[in-house]
């Protein structure tokens, strides 16, 4: 019987995948994932935790500006502080307070995150928009260092939905990821995290920036919140990442595309899902998360 990783590769995922602790993971990350729980953590570290395509670049830049106290872009791409991709030596070189970001589930994070009561910001996004964004990135771009020389996904849209729904997806299931973060207070009693919704950030970015600043204990003047919101608009942040930032940690694609910035909107899933696909998705969503799909 095929594993979930084998099923994903057979369906068109052109990345070497393996099973690790019951989840599908890129083979290139296995060694790091086995040791990530022991990565040294500082008491003033801030962790940004998201499922892929949930506004990671956006929120990471906002957090850096809050910590800096001004609407000034961080020097490097957010990949410079990617917990599960950077080496311990690279992470150790980052100045405090570090804003580390990760797509890992709570149970995969270093134990020190909880022991040292680090600040944790968790951003959740409409699952259907996450799926559409992932599909477009994986099906349209070829990593420069991809040994297969192919797009990361060459299967059908319908098969991609199936892979997403049953967790046969690089990095693991959206549902498992969300359930763990929803239940974080049970796993770590009285641990307070800052929960954000991508759609709320789009609706009133200034208000959500203010909430993050309050959580971090770094309140700023109202005009600074507005300046940060403006600097981190989709258009401005896309320009900064492609034209202003140091490109050392930028993952490039063969076609020269930045890859990460497509539309940055909400509700695009309605342009992709058929009625039957949407109903199938909603059924699994409700079964796994015990809630009705809200969008």
Could you provide a short overview of the structure?
This protein has a single domain (4-289), classed as Rossmann fold (3-Layer(aba) Sandwich), CATH 3.40.50.
Description:
By secondary structure, this protein is an alpha/beta fold. It has a single domain, classed as 3-Layer(aba) Sandwich (Rossmann fold). It is built from 14 helices and six strands. Strand 1 and strand 2 form a beta hairpin. Helix 3 packs across helix 11 and helix 11 (about 205-215) packs across helix 12 (about 220-230). The mean pLDDT is about 90.
Describe this protein with a few key phrases.
single chain, Rossmann fold, globular
Mean pLDDT metric: 89
SSE ordering: HEEHEHHEHEHHHHEHHHHH
Shape category:
globular
Total number of distinct structural domains: 1
CATH architecture: 3-Layer(aba) Sandwich
Give the distance, in angstroms, between the N- and C-terminal Cα atoms.
Answer: 36 Å
Secondary structure elements and pairings:
Blueprint: H1 4-10, E1 17-20, E2 23-26, H2 30-35, E3 46-50, H3 56-68, H4 88-92, E4 99-102, H5 111-115, E5 119-124, H6 127-140, H7 157-166, H8 174-182, H9 184-187, E6 194-197, H10 198-203, H11 205-216, H12 222-231, H13 234-244, H14 275-289
Parallel strand pairs: 3-4, 3-5, 5-6
Antiparallel strand pairs: 1-2
Helix pairs in contact: 3-11, 11-12
